[in-house]
């Protein structure tokens, strides 16, 4: 029996000014129709993270807000839309 599950995947990379290096990698999944959602962050460059905590944390908060909006959009869908 084939069971297909759909999800929305969000990915992000945070870079700081004057650097082309990724400081933090972000990944989130929102399962359509309910199920397990996840949000993850991986610090790729701890020195750049420490030197730019304030701006990096603002970017993480922005990504998290996008995740919440995707969850909220799912919650407002009617069964016919899923």
From TrEMBL:
Superkingdom of origin: Bacteria
Name under which the protein is recorded: Prophage protein
Lineage summary: Bacteria, Bacillati, Bacillota, Clostridia, Lachnospirales
């Amino acid at each position: 029996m084939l069971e297909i599950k759909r999800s929305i995947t969000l990915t992000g990379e945070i870079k700081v000014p004057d650097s082309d290096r990724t400081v933090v990698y972000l990944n989130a999944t929102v399962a359509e129709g309910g199920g397990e959602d996840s949000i993850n962050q991986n610090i790729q460059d701890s020195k750049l993270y420490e030197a730019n905590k304030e701006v990096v944390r603002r970017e993480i908060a922005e990504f998290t807000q996008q995740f919440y909006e995707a969850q909220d959009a799912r919650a407002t869908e009617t069964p016919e839309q899923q």
